[in-house]
Structure formats: C-alpha cells, structure tokens
Design brief:
heterodimer; A: alpha/beta; five-stranded parallel sheet; B: alpha/beta; Rossmann fold; globular
C-alpha cells in the first residue's frame, strides 16, 4: 500500500473558478486534463482487467469541469467543513473519480496502480472509509440522490445557524439509474424542501448495461419529467466544457433544486467503444487498448501544443 | 405500565434542547413515531419525506454526512425491509452516525396482518457489521438507551415497540450499552429475553420458583455487538437455556444465543418466539398469547423443557 503523501508531491492548490469567465487557456487546460484522466482510467481498468471504461469516458468532461473548476475544495483538507460536496451516484464510473482525485492531488498517482487489487484503497466502487475525497459509498444504483438531498438539507440547516456560506451539493446520476424508483422519491423531496443548493447532473448517454435506455425502459421525455417534479431544468452537451462551466456555475433558481441533463456519448474519446451497448464493462483487447491510447495521446499532444502557443500569446 | 416510545421522545426532546445537531427524519408517520411534541418545538428539525422509506434512510445518511445527528423513525415493517439496501449501503457501510428507530415492531400491528408485522428485523439487521442493535426492556432502559446512543460513534438501530412495559423492572442493575443485564440467577435454566419479553420472563421466573424450578433471567438489550462474555457467564451455572423474543425464532435473539453457546459452551436451548409461518392476525396481545409469549405461556414451556432435559 502506498504511504501517505506529502505536500511537496502535490500540485499547487487551485481555487475553484466560480464567477470568473473561463479563459481560452483554462479551457485548453481543462480539455487536456480530461484527456489525461481518460488515459488514467483506461490504464487502471486495463491493468486490473476489470472496470467500466465507457461509463468513465462518458462522464469525464463533467467530472473534470467539476473537480478542476467548479467545486470549492481543498485536496489537503478532504474533510474541510466548508467544501462543496460531490457524490458519484453512478458508482461504477469510479475510474473517472479516482483519475480526477489523483490528478487533483487528493492522493498520489501511484495509488492508481493498486486499483481493484487486494485490500486496495481504490476498490471497484467508491468507499469513503478508504479513499480521501470520496464523499459517499455508491455502487448500488438509485442511492446518491437521496444522500445528496440529506446533505443539501443538512448543510442549509447549519447555514441558518451561523456558517458563512452554504456549500453546494453536486450529484452525478447515470441515466439508466433513473429507472430506480428511489430517485423519484428523492426528486419529490428535494422540490418540497426547496433545496436550491443541490445540483444533479444526469450523464445522458442513452445506454445502460444491456441495451439503449429507450429500448429497455424509456426515460424520455426526461426534461419534462424533472420539470413536472418541480426542478429547475437545464440541458447541455456533456462534452462541451465551456457549456458545462456555464450551466454548473449558474446561480441557483431560488427555492428550486437544479438538474442538468448532460447529453453525452458513452465511451467518448475511444472511438472503438463509443455508443455501443456491448461496451459497458468490456475490457479492451491489447490491440484495442493500444488504439485507444494512441488516439488519446495524439489529442493530448495537440492540446498541449495549442496551450503552449496560447500561453505564449498571453505572455505577449 | 407504559409505552417506550414516550420515554424515547421525551429523552430526544430533552437532548435536542442541548444539542442542535439532533434532527429527525420520518416517513409521514409523525403520529406513530410520537414526534408531534418534537415537531412543535423544533419545526425546522423534522424532515418528513412522505411515504418513501428508501429516500428516508438516504436522507438520514446525507444529514449525518453534513455533521448532524439524525434519528430516522418509521414503523419497523417498512424501515427494516423496504430500506434494507439503504441501511446497508448508505448508513452502515459508510459508518454514518444515523440512528434508525423502529417505532412499531413485532406483532404490535397484530390485526393488520403479516405485511405490518416486523418479526425478521433482528435477523437481518444484526448481521450488518458495525450496526449497533438495541432494544430496551422498560421505560428507564428506553431513556438510558436513547441517551447512550447520543454519545455512540457509528450507526445504530433502536427497536422500540408498543407492548406495555413497566417504568422500571423490579430487578437489579441498569442499562449499559453493549452489556447484558442479569436480573436474577437460577441454576435449572437461564432465560435470555429482549424488549417487551423481559418483564414477562421475569414474571415467569417468579412463578417457576413457586413451582420448584430455579430460573435465571437476563435482559439482552444490546443484540449487536452481543456481549459474548456476559452471555457465557450468565448461563454458566445452569443446565439449559431459554430465549424469549417477539421475533421469529430464526435469526434473532434465539439464534444469537445458540451461536455463542454452540461455539463455547454447548447446552440445550429452547427458543421461544414466533415460528411455523407468518404470524396469525389478531389483536396484538391475543397474538402474543397465541404464541405463548406471556408470563404464563413462558412458565409452561420452560417447566416442560426443564423437565425434559434434566430427567
């Protein structure tokens, strides 16, 4: 097991950028980070021979936007009382979470090599007891939204008792997961309580483990459902980081919880896996792995070149 | 005779005046949870989720994650069955300081039938690692258990009920979280009982004494973690053991005692409780009587058992 990390090993603490317009350089950095995190997820699952790469890739741009821009957090103080909370309700996309937490400095990147190994601190679904930065144990679907509601209500209650700022609670839901009825119990409750510090993001990739959602138990009209449940509803391209920043940082609609339907492609970034039902938890063959890795590496290189020239321009 | 729910809510309100972390979560059952006085005193500290037990337990976990101390209350038949996955994954596995309160248990809802009986909850919940399981045997224990769980670190389940129990058992000792309480000694048999069956076992033991049998009585008010040393010590001097619970004879107190004795000190055990299928419907006390869960019923079964195993 890797030892405890020291401050010297960690990237410098970045404050969340809430309220600032995103610069072109920052956008390029976020894009590059999303590619790096995809590479980390691919590597982890390929090495372990187990994992959920396409679900990771589907939500990676959302997760990177949250962890590297939107969320108020401090990797050196994962239990910081005033932090924003993030719950990964679709716990099988844990590879995306670990990649973000490691890249953000919550634990050393070497931990990623222990993913799914015996007695690892990075098990195949999130466990707050063993991994810094993990807020809740998920993996069984249909649990995250209720817990997020409790968190949002609890943090708001404490705010009324003299805390200076109500932290926001973000929860990432899978779309297939919305077939679990418990979500709709929570959706009604959140609206009843007027939890406007709660933001749910639906990773709308239109696939579930066995087939397309609309061929299994259809979710559409999904926006209308949330609207009917009393939520403030927004939608965006879940791979467009600038759009995600806009919608995730928008001030709350007073008295209403917000849901963002993020339209995504399952497996996005690995063309061989994209939008294919058989690729829920399939592990690539060696050839497929090399192909995905090469594709991502090429994108990363080009983003880094672009970023370099952007920074040169900015320095004048 | 009194209702342990009253002792619970009185204590909860008392503690909530001092500790503003205390909140309650309830599934519409404000009345059967006896929460009305709490609601009038702390209206912003009651979260009524409506008829939605899965969400109720998840919300409780979230409130605990926000640093509050939630008491989640519902009839046991919904809490411990509908929301079992939430109890396991959202409360116990993440080790949240949630207190789950089953307010109507066993055959309390006698005539409403098996959908409303809760006779398997001890079996399922005591199997969850790290969940403390408590059921008080009188009003004094109900208050002491509520106070002890305020201080306790980790998730807990408090099994309350509607059967009448005394303000204070006519016996020595007091409630101590994690310990069995020896109420009387006896060498023909030791009776382990929990919840509303404790006072009945105690009455039965007194009758048995008049019949010429010496029966000890032990209140097992913490079922998990079970006080293994206490159980072994209390039963060491007696020839056989009886368990009494308002629960199926599978999975609950009887099973727990058998597990310990089979491994450490094998002896004959008679498990009294509900068996032979789902419990019959009928007024709660009549159902208890039907299954022999009265002082007279316990006396008869224990005398017969002791005669059989000691002959």
């Amino acid at each position: 097991m890797a030892g405890r990390h020291t401050k010297a090993q960690m990237p410098s603490l970045q404050r969340a950028g809430v309220g600032k317009e995103i610069t072109r350089a920052e956008l390029l950095r976020l894009k590059a980070t999303a590619v790096k995190c995809r590479l980390a997820s691919l590597e982890m699952a390929y090495r372990a021979g187990s994992g959920h790469i396409p679900p990771d890739f589907s939500c990676m741009d959302i997760m990177v936007t949250l962890f590297f821009r939107v969320l108020r957090l401090d990797p050196f103080r994962p239990d910081w009382d005033d932090r924003d909370r993030f719950i990964l309700s679709k716990g099988h996309a844990v590879g995306a979470l670990y990649a973000c937490l490691a890249e953000r400095g919550f634990f050393p990147k070497e931990w990623l090599d222990t993913y799914q190994q015996m007695e690892t601190r990075l098990p195949g679904h999130p466990d707050r007891n063993v991994t810094p930065g993990v807020e809740h144990n998920t993996g069984a679907l249909g649990h995250g939204l209720s817990v997020a509601c409790g968190l949002a209500a609890g943090l708001r209650l404490r705010k009324g008792r003299g805390e200076d700022r109500t932290p926001r609670v973000y929860v990432l839901l899978g779309d297939g997961e919305l077939q679990e009825g418990s979500n709709w119990e929570a959706a009604m409750f959140a609206a009843q309580q007027g939890l406007d510090n709660l933001v749910a993001v639906v990773d709308r990739n239109r696939l579930q483990q066995g087939d397309f959602t609309e061929r299994t138990v259809a979710l559409e009209d999904l926006a209308a459902k949330w609207y009917a449940f009393g939520w403030d509803v927004a939608a965006c391209d879940g791979h467009d980081i600038a759009a995600l920043v806009d919608v995730l940082e928008a001030p709350p609609a007073p008295g209403k919880p917000r849901v963002i339907i993020a339209n995504t492609v399952k497996g996005r970034g690995g063309p061989v896996m994209e939008n294919k039902p058989e690729w829920h938890h399939r592990i690539p063959t060696e050839a497929e792995y090399e192909e995905i890795k090469a594709g991502l590496s090429a994108v990363l290189e080009s983003l880094e070149r672009e970023l370099e020239s952007e920074e040169r321009v900015n320095r004048g | 005779m009194a209702d342990v729910r009253d002792a619970f809510i009185k204590t909860l309100i008392d503690e909530a005046r001092e500790d503003e972390r205390i909140v309650t979560v309830v599934n519409d059952s404000v009345g059967s949870s006896k929460l009305r006085p709490f609601l009038s005193e702390f209206p912003d500290r009651v979260f009524n989720v409506g008829i939605a037990e899965q969400n109720m337990v998840g919300v409780g976990a979230g409130l605990a994650a926000a640093g509050l101390l939630p008491w989640v209350s519902s009839a046991t038949c919904f809490l411990s069955y509908r929301a079992l996955e939430q109890i396991k994954n959202d409360v116990v596995y993440p080790k949240h300081n949630v207190r789950l309160v089953g307010n109507t248990t066993g055959v309390d809802y006698g005539a409403l039938g098996a959908t409303h009986h809760a006779l398997e909850d001890l079996g399922t919940l005591r199997a969850l690692p790290g969940l403390t399981v408590v059921t008080p045997s009188d009003m004094e224990e109900a208050e002491a258990a509520t106070r002890a769980l305020m201080q306790h670190e980790g998730p807990a389940y408090l099994r309350l009920y509607r059967a009448s129990v005394p303000e204070k058992l006519d016996a020595p000792g007091s409630f101590e979280l994690g310990k069995v309480r020896v109420l009387r000694n006896g060498d023909d048999c030791t009776i382990f009982a929990c919840g509303p069956m404790v006072v009945r076992a105690l009455d039965a033991a007194r009758m048995l004494e008049a019949d010429g049998y010496s029966a000890g009585v032990v209140a097992v008010s913490t079922l998990a973690p079970l006080d293994v040393a206490g159980v072994l010590e209390a039963s060491a001097g007696s020839r056989c053991v009886v368990t009494v619970e308002e629960h199926m004879t599978v999975g609950g107190l009887g099973s727990a005692i058998c597990e310990i004795l089979a491994e450490h000190d094998p002896k004959h055990v008679l498990r009294l409780g509900i068996s032979g299928g789902f419990a019959v419907p009928g007024p709660a006390e009549a159902v208890r009587e039907y299954y022999g869960l009265t002082a007279a019923g316990i006396r008869e079964r224990v005398a017969e058992f002791v005669r059989r195993v000691t002959k």
